[in-house]
Structure formats: C-alpha cells, structure tokens
Amino acid sequence: MLCSTIKADAQKQPPVSSVFLDAQYEYGSASSNAEFVLMDCQHELPSGNTVAERFKLDLKKRPTIFISGKVGPPKQIPQKHLKTGAMLTKLLKGMLEPHAAKIENTKDLKSKCLNKPMCGLLLKGGKPEPYVKDVVSNLLGAYPDIQFASVDTTLLLLANLEEYLPEYESGQHRFVLFKKVSGGLEVGDKDKDAEGKGRLVTSILPLEDPSISYGAINTLIKKAQSGSSKPTKLPMLPSIKTRTKKLEEAERKKRERIRGQKDKARKKKQAEQTPPGMFAENDGSKEGRKAERERRRQEHLKNSNIKPKTPEEIAEMERKRRARMEEEAAKWNVGGEDDVGDEGEPVGEEDIDFDGDGEEFVDMDDGDDDEDVLDLD
User: What one-character-per-residue DSSP string does 89-146 give?
Assistant: First the structure.
C-alpha cells in the first residue's frame, strides 16, 4: 500500500510514486500474491488516531509504502528497498512467495528448520543445476505447510547428522526430511523434567536415491505424512561446523562404527532366526552352502504355500514308487521264468541247435582231407 492523499477532485491528485508503479507493472501484473492499493494514511479512524499513527508509519520517509496481510501486521518498507521498482519487486517476492531458507549456522538450522513440524533440507554438494532449482520450486508450491531449506556442504559440515546420510561427494546433492518429535527452542533448561522432555527432539528420513528428483522427494514426504516409513530419532541435534579434513575423518570413523553396529545387529538377528546346528549365512564353506540351500528351499516352500509332507504321506509315495518299478520290470521280462535255467547251471551241448531245425548237427568230415584236395598245379 502506498500512502497518498486522496482528494475529491481527480485533476488535483498528487503524483503516484514511480517506484510503486514500476513494481505494480512488473510484479502485480504477473503474480496474484499481491495487490497494489493507494491509501490515505492521514485518514482519521473511529479511535481518533490516523492510519499512520495506528500502524506507526513514518510519513516523512517518501514514498511511504507498507505491506500487510500474509506477512502479518502492517510493516513499513525501508527506504533502501525503494530506490527502484526492481528493488521493491525483489523484496516483495522474498516476503510473499514461498522460498527455501538459507542455512549458514547452527542457529539458523534450529530456528528455520528443526523447530518446524516438518522441514526438508537440501545439502548442496556444489552449485545447484537448473533442474534442482525447479524441483525445489515445485515442492514449495506443492507443500506450502512444509519448510524447505538449503545448506552449502562444500564449506559446511553437519555434525551428528552426516553419519546417517549417504557419504559426501563433491558435486552430489543430498536431501533429508526432518520431522519434529517433541519440544521446542522456547523451552529452557529449567523447564526440563526428569526425563529430559521439553527440549527439542527431532527425527529424520534421508533420501537414499542419489539423484534429486521431484518424484523421489514427493514419495519420501508422502511416506512421512502417512506414517508408512518410520523416521530415525536423533539422539542429538545436528550442528553446523566448518568443513575440515579433521572433521571429515572423524565423521568417517563414526560412520564406520555405526555401520559395524548395524552389521552386528543384523547377524545377531539372523543367528536367532537360524535353526540350531546351521550356519547363519553362506560363508563359502560346505556347511554354509548347505544352509543357504536349505534357507532358499524353506523360503520357496513358504512363498509357494507348500506344506511339508507327513511320514505317512512319504511312506505311501514310496510304496507307489516301488509298485510302478515292479510293473515296469514285468514288462521287460518277455520270455518268462521257465525259459531260463537255474542260476549258475551251465548250458549243455545238447541244448545247442545251430541249424535251428531241431536236428543234431553232423560233421561230414571223414578225415580224408588230403585225398579230396585238388592239385591245381
């Protein structure tokens, strides 16, 4: 709103500020977030005070422009933003349009992000690409009730948080969603009870997808809102520190320690679920491979809804198998048992019939071989 004396005679109206008109033309025509209105700030209200007195406006600072509505009670715009229409437009965009908060220190992190019911933090690994800016812009429009923020992790390191996120790589961006559990910054140490309730406690849902995309972040937020994904409660609030080699090494060791604890807990859980006498996992040995096969077999039976057979069913299957084998053996016994002699009995000469006519073979050779031989010479 621009404070301007409104007179009945339109021909004697005071000139309107060019800064106000330029901002109205540039921002008011392209956005529905603001309306540009003229107001007589010297108008007397029923209380007896003028509009300027009611809202504590300094009419000596010209042009006198103030903003009210979405930003709360009326606030007069400082003169340093009233030199040009572009400067006023930039200020209005920052005040009226949703934008990601810039995190530079621990105080900013707590007040602008962690103290909100839900906050999405973009950890920039370098200069954001245009598509990353578009993703954040779309998220701001889709979730006006969620605070979004960004921090430059090429210079800053988030202690007590890095170990829960994918490891930092230059040029790679990361994203984490904070969900406040209880407490707040306005609660002092003296207000804490015996259990420590009252202090700010938060939880996280990190984005495991290495690529920053609207679909991946949108799915993460939906899971957090519906409760389908359980966030990880942080034992300590994150803090902002300057990134150094020493801090990076300390965070790396902490990450390895946490990973080792998770692996130990996983192996313990597997050991509890493994039957006695079996290996918990396939370690390459004969017993390990056998355990792996048995695990896969049990998993297949469970997924296929196959019930294990009882001893009676197994015995019946064996009886049927033997019966089938006997039937097949009978088919191959073509001649019958009477055609074969006893086991081990030699076959006599009288049983051999070379001619196949049943008559005894007679040797026609009378021993006079020499006389029957013709002398061809």
Answer: HHHHHHHHS--PEEE-SHHHHIIIIITSSEEEEEEESSSPPHHHHHHHHHHHHH-TTS
Judged by average pLDDT, the poorest of 171-185, 239-253, 362-376 is: 362-376
Over the stretch 281-292, which tens digit does the pLDDT of each residue have?
566 677 778 888
- The two three-digit tokens of residue 171, written as one number: 């040029």
* Residues 305-330 as b or e (16 or more Cβ within 10 Å = b): eeeeeeeeeeeeeeeeeeeeeeeeee
- Say if residue 56's pLDDT is above 60: yes
Taking a C-beta distance cutoff of 8 angstroms, is the pair 86, 26 a contact? Answer: yes
> For the chain, how far is it from start to end, CA to CA, in angstroms?
149
Instruction: Quote the CATH superfamily of domain 101-189+197-256.
Output: Glutaredoxin (3.40.30.10)
Domain edges within the chain = 2-96, 101-189+197-256, 274-317
pLDDT reported for residue 121:
95
The per-residue pLDDT for range 3-44, each reduced to its tens digit, is: 887 655 555 566 788 888 888 888 876 666 788 888 889 888
Cβ–Cβ < 8 Å for 106, 242: no
Say what the pLDDT of residue 191 is: 47
Burial class (CB in 10 A: 0-12, 13-18, 19+), 280: middle
